[in-house]
Write a structure and sequence with these properties.
Two copies of one chain form a homodimer. By secondary structure, chain A is of the alpha/beta class. Helices cover 47% and strands 17% of the residues of chain A. Chain A has twelve helices and eleven strands. In chain A, strand 5 (129-140) and strand 6 (145-151) form a beta hairpin.
Chain lengths: 349, 349
């Protein structure tokens, strides 16, 4: 396969098929990419959307799979009831090699479970991780990316040391591929910077991570390193990562609300906010991580990108670009090599 | 004892004795309070500070204890080496009934360990909790407090269901006393709002909290409920609470830095920020939880207030006021009653 093909689950996002199809249509018009997208979902609805949109038909394919797991459905029940749903159909395309990577903006639990039913885990991976980018003050890598990666944020709630070590290796590979960082700085989230701080799993993972090559292990990091962005990849178990990520979303919401309150209050605020609008827009962009193209699920033999359920067309387009990039830069091979090196180091020690 | 007496550890704060003594001196001048403060520390240094300050000598006492555990000392080593240190001397005054409550701005680990060596735990309390107030968008209680309470934030890293239930009872009692909330809303921090979400300890605590009276258990809350402030008290284990609290500190720092960057950039930003200064000051005050008087350590038969190591005089004065209030409103009795009710409910079921 010369061109990269993305299997895009077109169903189950918060706003239905419209923004998903629009994102794919926009990407098809972008001359800098030759990615092909297979839109998997209700063919009738997808067609109807496409008719309203500028798009290149030769880069878009449609596979009909009208049923889907909705946001409030239990993942297991939904997938058991609907084996032909858009998600499983799209995943199957990737498994059979008809597409290279899977993107979905649907029910997160269903995406993880559906992928684990369809794909194999990489050798050395016991549990997969959902990674998320979050905005940081410090910039990262040669492209000065204003975000860092955190994993796991909810796929594996409780982790042992093996899991945390594997997450570090996979997160570093992802950071290398997406942010062009040769030697990513990886930190382990704990309640103190000293090596003995944290759960037994963290303490053991800390000791092992000191001996792994391919990235720079900076040791334990603390809560305040998250918004600062003192490292490129933060590793934690899913329970903690989930709470941290949702809190960051909450803080971002709060900032917007406070701005609105100030805005409503007085005329001079309105004038002042108008003058500040450039700077506020900058800060908003910095904190709007939806533009960074979704969260990768790492640990399977194929990559899955989970786009936010609230994704607009631009977020979907970015998720598709990120997905294509992971294929073109051979993320899966990099992850596999990193894990193999860890195992051989284990054997040697 | 008719008047409330606070034993104040005057040593070991980041800026030394100066802000601690100043906070006590300021409180002594406040006609609305008749709290007495025992300043425990290097009598010579305390005297020197007091000579420079307006104060009422009849409300301030000095007990000489020049040695102290510094911020970067290991708590156990420091306390073992210095049995006469200011912290243990102050705690001993409380244990003997010569003071009612202990306040310290020193090494947090040493304060918790020192208290646990001096005081008894309340019946039904296996582990103590460090509680912290954090700023929220929603206001709380009849005084519209712009903050909520979270516990534990670092005293007990791993908690079983008993611990979480005890923390809920103690946190509710504290919220009742400090924020005048008759029936505080208490939430359990988890990775989803459904009762089955979270660690086994959280799931079990959830089931038990539904049957406890004296507060309103709102169920599981998520990361985004923290900055929003959807409940008055959030219960979590210390590992998670520590990371969340430090992250909030980090976010607050980041907001200040971004404001500074914007400020430095362009003249029109400076003009605009000048116009906005009222609003920004409001937001700063909202996010500056140092003004709320420190973090209580609950679970001992005497209350301890841990003031921030970076406390200025105002923060110390507020911590002293909060400490006095907990005595006058009989917090210890409320906590004891709440725990006893839980045990009798257990026996009845």
């Amino acid at each position: 396969m010369s061109k990269t093909t993305v299997a895009l689950d077109a169903m189950g996002a918060d706003q239905g098929v419209a923004p998903v199809v629009q994102g794919a249509a926009e990407l098809s018009m972008d001359e800098r990419h030759d990615t092909e997208v297979v839109l998997v979902g209700d063919a009738h609805a997808i067609d109807r959307e496409l008719r309203e949109l500028e798009h290149r038909r030769d880069r878009l394919h449609i596979v009909n799979a009208p049923s889907f797991v909705s946001m409030d459905e239990k993942p297991k029940v939904g997938l058991d009831d609907k084996p032909d749903c858009s998600l499983l159909t799209a995943a199957e395309l990737v498994r059979k090699g008809e597409a290279d990577v899977l993107v979905s903006a649907g029910n997160t639990g269903a995406v993880i479970l559906g992928a684990s039913r369809t794909f194999e885990r990489l050798p050395g991976v016991r549990r997969v991780a959902l990674a998320a980018v979050h905005p940081t003050v410090e910039s990262h890598g040669p492209k000065n990316d204003p975000f860092a990666l955190m994993l796991d944020v909810g796929a594996t709630l409780y982790c042992n040391a093996d899991d945390l070590v594997a997450f570090a290796i996979m997160g570093a590979a992802y950071s290398r591929v997406i942010s062009d960082i040769d030697c990513p700085r990886v930190g382990l989230l704990s309640n103190g910077s000293e090596p003995h701080k944290g759960t037994p799993a963290i303490v053991e993972a800390h000791a092992r991570l000191r001996n792994i090559r391919g990235f720079e292990f900076v040791g334990n990091v603390e809560g305040l390193d998250i918004p600062r962005g003192t490292c490129d990849v933060i590793v934690c178990e899913g329970f903690v990562g989930n709470i941290v990520l949702k809190m960051l979303e909450g803080v971002s919401e709060v900032a917007k609300e406070l701005a609105k309150i100030a805005y409503g209050q007085r005329l001079r605020y309105k004038l002042a906010l108008g003058m500040l609008s450039g700077g506020i827009k900058q800060i908003k962009e910095l904190t709007d991580w939806k533009q960074y193209g979704g969260a990768p699920i790492v640990g399977f033999d194929h990559l899955v990108i989970k786009a936010h359920g609230r994704s607009n067309a631009r977020a979907i387009r970015n998720a598709l670009k990120v997905a294509a990039k992971t294929v073109e830069r051979r993320l899966a091979d990099q992850v596999r090599d990193g894990l193999a090196q860890d195992r051989s180091a284990d054997g040697a020690s």
